[in-house]
Design goal:
mainly alpha; 197 residues
């Protein structure tokens, strides 16, 4: 999953959430140099990625996407999972979507100073442009894919092929709730184990 799923699973712990968020923004060496208060979040991010990649829903869905997206199928699915969460938010969180976004943006702004200077501007840009909101509908999702198109080394055409995702949305939603419940349950166990260390 992409930003939204990771942020939702992080709960209320600001340092955990920020460490989790930083993994996708920084290189390995930069992560090791961060304040120790963020290290549990880095571990948590990697745990979520492991759970996601090994889950049967994720593996089966990749097979559906592969004929169109090929080696970028996992990237597309990570982003699409955030769309599935945002567009059906009330089924996955008791916190209203707008309240969630405000809370997350405040945390990101508060802790941006902990990141390298070159990344701080990126965080403020993301917050200023309400990046979480973009996962809520197809037009926002298309913007996300257009940015991904610009970052890939090889032709990807994410945005041009978004119609395929629209056609497959009902199929991709099937089983998603069970998938997310499984991930959340395992994450809670992981976080409880961290608390006892």
């Amino acid at each position: 999953m992409n930003y939204l799923g990771h942020l939702l699973l992080s709960g209320d712990d600001e340092h955990l959430l920020m460490g989790n968020f930083m993994v996708d923004r920084l290189g390995l060496k930069e992560l090791t140099l961060l304040d120790p208060v963020y290290q549990d979040g880095i571990l948590f991010h990697r745990h979520i990625d492991f759970l996601t990649d090994s889950h049967h829903y994720f593996k089966e869905t990749l097979q559906i996407l592969y004929p169109v997206y090929h080696k970028y199928s996992a990237v597309v699915l990570d982003v699409f999972i955030d769309y599935l969460l945002a567009s059906d938010w009330d089924n996955y969180s008791a916190e209203p979507f707008d309240d969630f976004k405000k809370r997350i943006y405040k945390i990101l702004d508060t802790h941006a100073h902990a990141m390298p200077e070159r990344s701080q501007g990126t965080i403020h840009f993301m917050v200023d442009h309400d990046f979480i909101e973009q996962y809520d509908d197809w037009s926002g999702l298309e913007m996300v894919f257009r940015r991904l198109d610009q970052r890939t080394k090889f032709p990807s055409f994410f945005a041009q092929q978004i119609d395929f995702l629209k056609q497959k949305e009902a199929v991709l939603r099937t089983g998603f709730g069970y998938f997310f419940d499984d991930i959340r349950s395992d994450c809670l166990e992981f976080l409880q184990a961290l608390d006892t260390e």
